[in-house]
Each structure stands twice: as C-alpha cells, then as structure tokens.
Amino acid sequence: MNAFEITGGIKLKGEITPQGAKNEALQILSAVLLTEKKVTISNIPDIKDVNKLIELLGDLGVTVERINKDTYTFEAKNIDLNFFESDTFKAKGGGLRGSIMIVGPLLARFGKAAIPKPGGDKIGRRRLDTHFIGFEKLGAKFVYDSKKAFFNVDATNLKGAYILLDEASVTGTANIVMAAVLAKGTTTIYNAACEPYLQQLCKMLNRMGAKISGIGSNLLTIEGVSVLGGTEHRMLPDMIEIGSFIGMAAMTESEITIKNVCYDELGVIPEVFRKLGIKLERRGDDIYVPSQKHYEIDTFIDGSILTIADSPWPGFTPDLLSIVLVVATQAKGNVLIHQKMFESRLFFVDKLIDMGAQIILCDPHRATVNGIDKKYKLRGISMTSPDIRAGVSLLIAALSAEGKSTIYNIEQIERGYQDIDTRLRALGAQIKRVNADAPSH
User: Fold this and answer.
1) Where does phosphoenolpyruvate bind (predicted)?
2) Whether the Cβ atoms of residue 40 and residue 67 lie closer than 8 Å to each other
3) CATH homologous superfamily, domain 2-19+237-435
4) 344: pLDDT confidence band, cut at 50, 70 and 90?
5) Which residues form the catalytic set?
C-alpha cells in the first residue's frame, strides 16, 4: 500500500495550476456516446476515476486517441452493446461511481442500457433514484436485480416530459439532460442543478446540435433532436482543487499564486474563505494568496457564531466543507460546519482532534470548531484517508503540523488529485511517497 510521509511546518511559495475538473469530466466524457462523430476534449485530469471511465468507454467500442497529456479524441461509432452482459463490465462498472453517467447517453442513442450498482466514496448513501425517476418520466422502463445488484433499462421510445426533480442532483440532472436531447418532443426539467460543470455540459451539447435553453438556471427546456454531431470542448479547472490550495496557503502561512482559475465560475467559494479571514486577491484570472500569520473568522452581523453550510449551487459546494473545517482549526474564532448532504463526511475529525485541533462533533452532520489562532501547531500523526476530500484535508493539516505525519490509503486522494505530491514538492513541501502497511487499528 502507498502512503504519503509529510514533514510539516514548512512555508510554501510559488505558483500552482489546478487540474481539469473531475466532476465535469465524468459528465463530459459520457456525452461522447451521444454521437458517432469525433469529439475532442482537453484539460482532462489524469486521475484514476477519470482514467477508469476512459478505459470503460474504450471497452464499449469507443475509439479513444490520446493527443497529449490532457487532450483526447473520442469516436463512438461502433458501440458493442453486448459488452453489458460481460463480467468485465460488471467488475469495472461496479467499481466506478461515475459509470452511472453513461446510462443517459446510451438510452438516448440506443434505447437500452445496463449498469451495475456503482461504487465510489464511503461518505454515506448516495441515492440514484433521481436518475431513474427521470428516465422513467421520459418513458424508460427499468428492472433492478437486487441479487446481482444490477440495473437493466429499456428505452426504445423516449418522449419529452415535464420533470420536477425531488433534489437538485448534479449527476441526476446531467444524466436526464443527456437522455432527453435525443428524445421526441420537449422536456422541461425543474429544480435542475445549475453548477458550472452542468452548464459546461449543456453548452457542449448545444454545440453538438442539441437545443437546450435556460442554461445556468434551475429550469431547463430541451427540444429533442434526431442526431448530434462532433465538437471540441475544454474543461474548467477544478474548483475543489482551487479551494484546497487557498486553504493550504492559509494553514501553512504560504505565499501562493493559483493560476488560470476561471474566477467568474467560482461562485461564493472565494467569499467563504474570506469569511474565515483569509486574504486573497484576484489578479486577472489568477488568485494570489499572501503569506498570513493570523486569520480571524467573521461572525454574523448580530455577533453570533458563523455557520458555513453546503447547499446546491450557487450555494457552497459540499466538497469543500472538509477543507474549510481544517482551515478553521488554526483560525482565531469559532465556526459551526454543517454538512447537510452526506451523513459520514465529518467522521475524519477524530484524526484532527488527535493532532491537537479543538473540534466538537455535534452529530454526523455538524461540527463546531474552536480556532486556536496558531497558538500551538497541530502535531504530526499517522492516519488513514477515508475519502477523497477528507484525505486532502488531512494532507493540508499534515503540511501545517509540527513533525512527521503519515497518511495511508492515499489511493483515495489520488482518485481526485493529479500528481499531488509532485506539484506540492514544486512549492517546497516535504512530501514523499512510501510503501507502507496501514496500521491495523
């Protein structure tokens, strides 16, 4: 098993460029199945979840060509629908949560699809109901085989429909949009997710010949077309990486410039970090974070303790709450972190408490952080990464801590962050990859 060994307490300095957005990639790559024409996609992150999906597309019969490190062409001319019945598909599809995203395009173009129950992070239940209720409204019929944990879907006659989503699911909205673009008639999706990544998908589909209006709002209207063509698409930088690097700079008192961030697509993210007292400047399309000895958490106007909670876009993304929590441990002041969407994402705080942080875990969704204002440093410990975002939060804590930390199960971190150790070393971090068995407890 690979682990990261980190010697903390070192100020970092320099420039870092965020990778392409993981959560956009899973949607955009699935959309190549909607056409037999060539689609060129650039700024693709070189991470495990994305590479697994590209491999799965190849297994399905998509001609995949890598042009350079982050650019590929895809041609879904000869799709092998029998691949669904293979053990290979069951194994690969079941091990990748993003594999659910290929269902919508396959239903739209071929009228049928199958998918094993997807895997992914252990951060609580992640329902797929939104996806399948949406497909059902469009006329699809599906059967779930509970013994094999497998979904079979028949959609030989998709028709446009009015769909009111029970939750503004990003992947659910994307999947339904991809199914609807080739359905007969008009589809209206209300309570649609409106994240920048979903906007990117809709703009790409429109360039391919789809007719989607209302992009950027929670009310999408899709006029079905009979066929889609090819296009070129460049993915946005990963906003979760950008937020992670802002937090890392603050925790380690580092002067860092984050390059090419597509600032206008970041929504409230910079403002939330400012509420923690972190200074950051927009410089063109870069974010400059100066070295800062102390940062103080705001209160609400009436003086009560600040609450930072996740909510659907344009609210604050749940993927950055664990970063905010870690950063708050070294701030001056108090904050309540409220993780509404997932019930197990705060369970990593026991590791931070072991490092010396003052945190009360109120329940599975809420934690109160008492910032210690850097009166003493966190101390390095050995710990295991439970999921992608908690793993990076622990990595940031380790970079700021006194002494050596070891993080096991870094495969979880590498599912979402490309070459993270190499890129941090370029800023001066003391981080190295080692082979080590995780502790048994």
Assistant:
1) 22-23
2) yes
3) Enolpyruvate transferase domain (3.65.10.10)
4) confident
5) 121
Enter the pTM of the model: 0.90
Strand partners of residue 405: 6
Residues 6 or more apart whose CB falls under 8 angstroms from that of 375 comprise none
- The pLDDT assigned to 253 comes to 96
> 231 Cβ partners below 8 Å, 6+ apart?
39, 40, 204, 207, 208
- The phi, psi pair for 3, rounded to 5°, reads -140, 160
**Residue among 106, 313, 310 at smallest CA distance from 199:** 313
User: Cα–Cα distance between 292 and 274 in angstroms, integer?
Assistant: 13
CATH match of 22-234 with 3.65.10.10: yes
Domains 2-19+237-435 and 22-234 share a fold: yes
Residue 355 in marked binding region:
no
According to the annotation, is 191 in a ligand binding site?
A: no
Label residue 146 exposed, middle or buried (CB < 10 Å: 0-12, 13-18, 19+).
exposed
Closest CA to 417 of 97, 14, 27, 21: 21
Asked whether the beta carbons of 359 and 352 are under 8 A apart, the reply is yes
- Give Cβ neighbours of residue 74 (< 8 Å, ≥ 6 apart): 29, 32, 38, 39, 40, 41, 57, 62, 63, 64
DSSP bridge partners of 42: 234
Q: Which residues contact 371 (CB under 8 A, 6 or more apart)?
A: 297, 328, 329, 330, 331, 332, 333, 334, 335, 358
Which tokens in the block code for residue 231? 């296009």
- 152 is known to lie in a ligand binding site: no
Mean pLDDT throughout 37-51? 94
Q: Is the pLDDT of residue 393 over 70?
A: yes
Alpha-carbon gap, residue 83 to 81, rounded angstroms: 5
State the Rg of the chain over Cα: 22
Q: What is the pLDDT of residues 266-278, one digit of tens each?
A: 999 999 999 999 9
Does 377 carry a binding-site annotation? no
Domain boundaries, the chain: 2-19+237-435, 22-234
